[in-house]
Design goal:
ROK (chains A, B), alpha/beta, Arc Repressor Mutant, subunit A, Nucleotidyltransferase, domain 5, ATPase_NBD (chains A, B), 3 domains, 13 helices, 387 residues, ROK family transcriptional regulator (chains A, B), five-stranded mixed sheet, homodimer
Chain lengths: 387, 387
């Protein structure tokens, strides 16, 4: 029994080693894998064989029956068998994406929808339909879905969305309201956006990802991992103080960043009805629009100055609506950062627009399960084998 | 050769294991050590014997020649042989402390001194005299000093103090200006204060330590380790935005926390000349003093609200002058935290005064080397054996 347990845990560790190297480095021969992992060639061959059979790996180049493992043939991650679901509830939309193990998006859909003041049951019912469409797509591709992660626009713990003032929700057990045939985890959209940027963007290993939507959140990535804080509530940049005598915020406080640079404050200041209208007005050089964007950028700079003082950041990535607004927002924010931090730090963090775009949180959500499967493939391998 | 290297690294690991258990758990028998470390009894006996000979461990109870290792005899950390130096340059004082391996303070001195606008060479010259007094005390006690750590009131990297506006220093290579016969490391006083609180106070494993002196800094402890940020500059709470239109700060920005709750702002608002006078005035219930403390507490609450939003903190420890001022500062700060965080988080972090007091940074500085020696005793063990 103890022998079997030891063998199992060694096998799990070795599977993780092999998948980890292929995931990080791309195509590798069995010989290279043996060298990188320190395992014997015969152990590597056995593990690679099992992973090929389970559809976790594929051989590159033309392969013929009986010819597996020819010298020089490389193996890569295969998206043929296992996939994961990324889901997102935001104030203005619902989204889903189906990601395979090779990190290819196999299906995605986004439904624009005003979720302000809506009943959680109703929104989650529609999300469930959307998720089912993705699960149907998975079945059609003969993909086993390993799990789903749901991104929500507010602080989360143990599957409960504590507060999403922009939805009008508080203490909603979102995980219990979503009935899917796969395990569901719930996390904050800014955290998942940060992971989306880390895994699918051009970002470095340490950065603050700022998610500018109706609400403003942030995810801090330190050494390629999320910094979550005591309860997973870290990164509430939207409620950092910009001015204590500022406008009343939906969170109950006053002068939070969101009251200056949140989507609704921005649109109101620019006198337009939508982000699309705001971008048109900015493109046309409309004065009210450029002024509103610069004012939001200034507020963002103030909140980021506090964040940099506390967290010692070198890189800030602006996502959500802040990405398309970057050319108009960033100069004002950079000006404030230079004025407030230049003398004390001697340097100012770089600001860059997200390269992943609006889907960062949905991608990060789907990517989390892929990451999880690659780090501990055993259970999913057995499940895949059993189907 | 490879065998010898392997043997050495195994021995180093085993020494760390044994010292770590005794350091964490207190007195232990050799049998208990064997059980806890998974090493054989004979390996433990050999390691304990070496550590007793080197003066790193001592046996409890009466010991007679030739009777070492009797069953039931416990070993504890011994402060007989190795010690470390904690040094601090603050705006108003210089301090030193000599800490032995059993974490007993064997010597300490604090010299009140106005270091504002002083030449670094002069201040470091006086600190060197102070350090020499402590080194003489170490020699008198036959203690080998393993190293010195210097706490300075500003952001530090690679032995350089980037900026200490309250001293009037910028880009000072403090490590190069201090000539001691032991290795010197330089770190920020708030970081070291946080470690002092962690090791010598009653704090939990996760907290923000706020150091209120002429400047205000903070050290974030996550899972019993410091969070340092990209360049070790994290925790600059003193320059978090309280109000963007507030008073001009020495850092070049406006409305930083320091301009409201720094020692000088506090004394000026209260109309007194020293912290001692302020405490007397508060004890006597003087209106200007209680008002000044409450206003500083309110500003502190605003900066901490931003910190809690970003870092998700449950516990904040107020150190430096904020510890004695706690009864007058804390209610206002707690009021702001409750008003700004209550609805979004559902809970408010606890504020508590430091239990270590004004020596937290000096103690943390000395403790860092002790921590280092216990984690890797080999080099110091050999040095102690050689003397």
């Amino acid at each position: 029994m103890t022998q079997a347990v030891r063998h199992d845990s060694m096998r799990a560790r070795n599977l993780e080693l092999v998948l980890g190297e292929v995931s990080r480095r791309g195509p590798l021969t069995r010989a290279a894998l043996a060298e990188l992992t320190g395992l014997t060639k015969s152990t590597v061959s056995k593990l690679v064989g099992d992973l090929l059979d389970a559809g976790f790996l594929a051989e590159t180049g033309p392969a013929r029956a009986g010819e597996r493992g020819r010298p020089g043939v490389e193996v890569v991650l295969s998206g043929a068998r296992v996939a994961s679901l990324g889901l997102e509830i935001n104030v203005d939309y619902l989204a889903v994406c189906l990601l395979d193990l090779a990190r290819e998006v196999r299906f995605s859909e986004r439904r624009e929808r005003d979720n302000r003041g809506s009943r959680p049951e109703e929104v989650l019912g529609e999300l469930q339909n959307l998720a089912q469409t993705a699960l149907d797509a998975a079945a059609a591709h003969r993909l086993t879905v390993a799990g789903a992660v749901l991104a929500v626009s507010g602080p989360v713990g143990d599957g409960v969305l504590f507060s999403a003032p922009n939805l009008g929700w508080a203490g909603v057990r979102v995980a219990d309201l979503l009935h899917l045939p796969v395990p569901v985890t719930v996390d904050n959209e800014a955290n998942l956006g940060a992971l989306g940027e880390l895994w699918f963007g051009a970002g470095p290993a340490d950065f603050l990802f700022v998610s500018g939507e109706v609400g403003i959140g942030a995810g801090l990535v330190v050494d390629s991992a999320l910094f979550r804080g005591a309860h997973g509530l870290a990164g509430e940049l939207g409620h950092v103080v910009v001015s204590p005598t500022g406008p009343r915020c939906r969170c109950g406080a006053a002068g939070c960043l969101e009251t200056y640079a949140g989507q609704e404050a921005l649109l109101e200041a620019a006198g337009v009805a939508s982000v699309a209208d705001l971008l048109s007005a900015l493109d046309a050089g409309a004065r009210s629009a450029t002024r509103a964007a610069a004012a939001a950028g200034e507020a963002l700079g103030l909140a980021l100055a506090s964040a940099v003082n506390l967290l010692d950041l070198d890189h800030v990535v602006l996502g959500g609506v802040f990405a398309p607004l970057f050319p108009w927002l960033a100069p004002a924010a950079e000006g404030v950062l230079a004025a407030r931090l230049g003398r004390l730090r001697g340097s100012v963090p770089t600001l860059a627009p997200s390269t992943v775009g609006g889907a960062a949180a949905t991608l990060g959500a789907a990517g989390r399960t892929v990451h999880h499967v690659l780090a501990d493939p055993g259970p999913f391998l057995n499940r895949a084998e059993a189907t």
